[in-house]
Description:
The structure holds two protein chains of two kinds.
Chain A: H1 16-35, H2 41-68, H3 74-114, H4 121-133, H5 138-142, H6 167-191, H7 194-226, H8 233-265, H9 275-300
Helix pairs in contact in A: 1-2, 3-8, 3-9, 6-7, 6-9, 7-8, 8-9
Chain B: H1 2-10, H2 19-23, H3 28-57, H4 67-102, H5 110-136, H6 156-159, H7 162-191, H8 204-235, H9 249-283, H10 290-305, H11 319-331, H12 333-347, H13 356-379, H14 381-387, H15 391-421, H16 427-453, H17 468-496
Amino acid sequence: MSSAEETYYCPEPSHWPIVAVAGIFGFTFGTALTVNGAVIGPYTMAAGVLILAYLFYGWFSDVIGEIGKGYYSKKVDISFRQGMLWFIASEVAFFATFFGCLWYYRNVASDWQNGVGYLGSTFKYLYAHLYEAKEILSGAQEALSWTANNGHVNKGGDFTNMGGLGVPLINTILLLSSGVTITIAHHALLSGHRKTLINALGATIVLGLVFVCFQAYEYGHAYASLNLTLESGIYGSTFYLLTGFHGFHVTVGAIMLLVVWARCAKGHFSKDQHFAFEAVAWYWHFVDVVWVALYIFVYWL
Amino acid sequence: MSTADVAHDDHHHGAPTGWRRWVFSTNHKDIGTMYLIFAFCMLIFGGLMAMAIRAELIFPGMQLLSPDVYNNIVTNHALVMIFGAVMPAAAGMANWMIPLMIGAPDMALPRLNNLSFWLLPIAAFTLVTSMLAPYLLDFGTVDTGVNTGWTIYPPLSAKVGASMDFLIFTIHVLGISSILAAINIIVTILNLRAPGMTMMKMPLFVWTWLVTAFLLILVMPVLAGGVTMLLFDRHFGTSFFDAAGGGDPVLFQHLFWFFGHPEVYVLLLPSIGVLGMVIPTFSRKPLFGKTSLVISMAILMVLGLIVWAHHQYTIGMSLGTVTYFMIGTILISIPVGLMVFNFIATMWRGAMTFETPMLFAIGIILMFTFGGLTGVMLAVIPADMQYHDSMFVVAHFHYALIPGALYGLYAGVFFWLPKWTGRMYDEKLGKLFFWTNVGGFNLTFFPQHFLGLAGMPRRIIDYNVAFTEFNVMSSIGSFIFGISHILMLYIIIKCVKGQGEKATDQVWEGAKGLEWQLPSPPPFHTWATAPTVK
């Protein structure tokens, strides 16, 4: 009980969890109100977001202060690391869901709805008479290919698919290089080269932000020139779902990188204690890998 | 390390006082207590809804409720019981017992732990908002209330009014809470075990929670993704679940049950863990074949993840697909059967006594096995085509979940109540509670098997007069079952108020493990220095 090596740090009562609850409540409840057109909805949402911003600032400041006071033993560090890894695991499951949906729409949905191939066998034997009557499934019948559907009753109008070259290719190169620069920064941190660390991490942030800007430009282009919108049938739906959630994660990752960059500049990290840096690096690599999968499955195939 | 010493002295002075103790808590015992109290409140809330359903169904025709209100109550009864009662109660026990069992000073991430809990009351608030939205909030659209059942299948769920949005965000908040709690539990188990407490020496309850937490991390995000897509379909013009837009409503069913089936094991496994503690204690024998139990749990987890579509046999999947899901589902009876035999083998030739926790444990083995057998019936495709969406299904999953999940938690409450409060509960009242509760439960749900086989559909407010007798029996049973919980509350309150015989440290003669070496009740901070396990 005489050193931090032997006692596990159990924090004192803290108000941050309750602040977090207030923020999450404001944001979720406010969103539910907003989508239904309630006037107070956007204000509640905004209040939630502000509280969350205050929360992250305050909670993490507390934690950083505790590190500074040397409260954290090796074991606490391992807890943080494992916690972050399992959090990323849950994020993997979240994105895997959307990739799974994409696979399902492309390879299963239209076959089994239209009685094509072995997936449609039940349909053929049980519902063929309905198929002939062409009444019940008229919408699905006309859905020939999953990219050619303009949405319910043509609500989205004709659109052009997003190509794989141009901006998406540049974005791929940007994110992959940012994965290299953050690795350079990590090695610099481990070998004590502070200048390289700060420069390489700064480059990572710039690459991430440029990526987000390009993504925003691409969305503008899709809406303005390609008429590719959320309402453009299942192609538009999945395109925006996957790229949108990924873009949100890149934005969050870039903010996290900014914080870590500022902390590097202040000299918070040592060779042995730099959990926050590694956590953000892992997160960034995760976002990177998701993009590669996105580029292959959404833009190419 | 003098600073660490100061910090150490600072926060080991005992419990903070007043409301701050609970709202700002970082103590696993206090958070566990809050989880348990919340779960009991939700159990009563969900139970009252169940009794309203049975009061409506006691006779054919409309008694008390309108169809929309009835549907709304059917939906929310399920959600409240699963997310409000069973999961938080199991999480409360995990909070209380895992650190004591593995010799940890607290949960690994105590502040995150408090966040996981306090998300639940706001989720409950949002859920109640969803229930009352049709009556209280006017968004200028027709709102029938969530009349879809807890499975919220589109296209119906895409057409419900604002109450569905509140439900979607309830699910999001519950998901955040569960994932954070699961992360915390896994990290605690993997990182904070006392020296010498190897994985295979961990008590079964800790093992079951490790598997449960892992499942939660895998499947909760899938549900979150699914309801997010539903939200987009409802408000942002996407076509995920709209066949006319190239989407597929059945995909939601796949997403839902990819979460929903493992969720059954999330509800079940912690209770199996309690069984693994209770049965050896009252049989005064070590657990039979613990390694095989752990392995069968791992198999159960893997199989549980790949058999979801047995909930959807009637949607028209191809023959090959349904056959695969049938075989996978029936295979699950092997690891589950192995668990049951292990528990029976633990009791075999043991010096058994029958205190309330043990009565519940034996009740689980009998009644849960029965629920499992009707599950095998439902897994068989041609049979399921007949049973699907009938009262038989209702009887089946209540036989699986009430003994399988709820009775395990009751066993845990009676088993650990003396440890938590320092007082023995009233054994006579405990036994009375067991018999009225089990009697009421069987009277409620056993007749529903016959109703289902005779063709009574589930989730419908009215029924054919031919089904009257069994429905009357079932409703009377449900009132006995429901009201018996007042007795449980009384027993618990007596212990909490410090009435009854003082409990020893070991509490039960046959109890073994680190948690029984601590005083009853344990001090505010325990295992500040980790014990060494031999």
